[in-house]
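Milestone 3.1: sequence recovery, worked example.
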């Protein structure tokens, strides 16, 4: 029932008890589940009134607040199943967290200039380390003194990409000294077709190397070189442990799939059947990559989608669930764009006010992004808010395959290559450059599971625990809720378990 219908129902039910609604009571105050209780309490409150009485906005707000407080958190009680022996409980934990602490910034134009300069320098270094054959020219301005026809490799940031009238693509690339117009011709040879297609994958604000021939004030491109990650063997480790990946739990949303989440908690506690039982017992770590709570005021009219309207209660319920996870499992809780830490990335770990009452030795509150080293395996966890802009910018990407967008992020060695899609802290150091190549790259945000492998890096998008929302339905997204990817480190294998 939409909230407007709820308001109508409230008004008509109350009128039978000779109570009128004050004119300033609006639909956002009333959510469908609370109508009966609300009516009962208003009737009780006004029972001594003679004749018609009026229920005020304040009265209703106070009752709704009271009902919310009584309703949440929902007590769940999951206990370790008798006789369940978990292999992971016998193994010592080894974890090392490297948070991306937010650096201060004034947010001035100069700060932005420094920020992009740093991105350019860091990624240029990565490109130089790749030893890409032809040496990179010192600066774009240096090419101005070169003769036409000379072959050069430049490094810079893409600032503009347009299709010309003749059907070619022109890209403006800039470094701290100058900019240059780079042409990608829509030619007929195989080679030029491939290059032309590749040029469509260039996104604004990314740093790349381009090899080409100078021609007057243009560079006629022959090759694009992305910073990329070197090809390496997939890393395996000795310990027979498993890591479970979660994201987008959205506790507090009406669409949070609480029953399924409880089922998963029971599974972790040994109530599983057959082969999956073995995997449950191996889980030593759980990474929660953001949007752990649904938050408040994240998008217009969110209040209609909330089951819990109090942010503290949302986190209380989340930590209540987390406390049901067996204590030998270490849990890493990261924020996402829905969480109560502000949207600018890097996002700080959840504040003391949300976690102070729920401290446990096995629960770690981390930043977004952060590196989490587990028994020598480097996991780079990032919520994935930038995936929206990546999917929009690159032709063959879609919400159906988040892992492909994650490969593009890895190739660009930057967690958020397109500036402006998501909010970034313009600190002097660009902390979203992927300086260190991880063994596992973990993201969420898209609400769709995906697993891939790229140059020896395991890629996992851990989907969601939220049912399809109206917004997703309208935009044609098909989420994959309640599917838990688990990585068995010894075998180097992912298994996804459906709850
Ligand atoms: Fe998100």
């Amino acid at each position: 029932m939409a909230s407007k219908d709820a308001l109508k129902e409230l008004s008509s039910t109350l009128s039978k008890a000779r109570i009128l609604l004050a004119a300033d009571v609006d639909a956002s105050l009333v959510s469908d589940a609370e109508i009966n209780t609300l009516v009962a309490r208003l009737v009780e409150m006004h029972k001594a009134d003679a004749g018609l009485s009026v229920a005020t906005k304040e009265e209703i707000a106070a009752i709704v607040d009271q009902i919310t407080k009584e309703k949440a958190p929902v007590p769940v009680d999951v206990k370790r199943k008798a006789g369940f022996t978990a292999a992971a409980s016998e193994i010592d934990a080894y974890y090392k967290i490297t948070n991306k602490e937010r650096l201060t910034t004034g947010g001035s134009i100069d700060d932005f200039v420094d920020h992009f300069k740093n991105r350019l320098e860091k990624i240029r270094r990565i490109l130089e380390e790749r030893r890409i054959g032809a040496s990179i020219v010192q600066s774009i301005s240096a090419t101005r003194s070169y003769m036409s026809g000379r072959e050069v490799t430049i490094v810079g940031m893409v600032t503009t990409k347009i299709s010309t009238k003749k059907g070619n693509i022109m890209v403006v690339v800039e470094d701290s000294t100058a900019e240059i117009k780079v042409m990608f011709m829509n030619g007929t040879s195989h080679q030029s077709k491939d290059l032309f297609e590749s040029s469509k994958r260039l996104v604004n604000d990314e740093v790349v190397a381009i090899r080409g021939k100078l021609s007057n004030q243009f560079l006629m491109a022959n090759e694009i070189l992305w910073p990329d990650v070197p090809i390496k063997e997939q890393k395996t480790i000795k310990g027979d442990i498993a890591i479970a990946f979660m994201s987008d739990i959205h506790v507090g949303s009406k669409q949070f799939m609480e029953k399924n989440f409880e089922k998963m908690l029971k599974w972790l506690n040994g109530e599983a059947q057959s082969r999956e039982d073995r995997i449950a017992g191996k889980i030593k770590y759980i990474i929660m990559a953001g949007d752990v709570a649904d938050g408040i005021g994240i998008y217009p009219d969110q209040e209609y989608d909330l089951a819990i309207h109090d942010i503290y209660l949302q986190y209380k319920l989340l930590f209540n669930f987390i406390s049901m996870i067996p204590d030998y499992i270490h849990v890493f809780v990261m924020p996402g764009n829905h969480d109560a830490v502000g949207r600018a990335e890097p996002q700080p770990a959840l504040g003391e006010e949300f976690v102070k009452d729920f401290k446990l030795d096995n629960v770690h509150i981390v930043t977004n992004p952060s590196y989490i080293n587990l028994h020598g395996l480097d996991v780079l966890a990032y919520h994935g808010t930038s995936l929206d802009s990546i999917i929009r910018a690159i032709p063959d990407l879609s919400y159906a395959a988040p892992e492909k967008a994650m490969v593009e992020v890895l190739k660009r060695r930057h967690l958020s290559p397109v500036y402006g899609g998501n909010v970034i802290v313009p600190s002097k150091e660009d902390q979203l450059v992927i300086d260190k190549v991880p063994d596992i790259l973990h993201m969420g945000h898209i609400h769709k599971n995906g697993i891939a492998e790229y140059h020896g890096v395991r890629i996992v998008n851990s989907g969601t625990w939220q049912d399809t929302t109206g917004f997703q339905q309208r935009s044609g997204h098909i989420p994959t809720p309640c599917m838990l990817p688990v990585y068995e480190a010894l075998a180097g294998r992912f298994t996804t378990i459906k709850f």
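The domain at 131-225 is CATH 2.40.50.140 (OB fold (Dihydrolipoamide Acetyltransferase, E2P)). Residues 248, 291, 336-338, 383, 385, 445 surround fe (ii) ion (CB under 6 Å).
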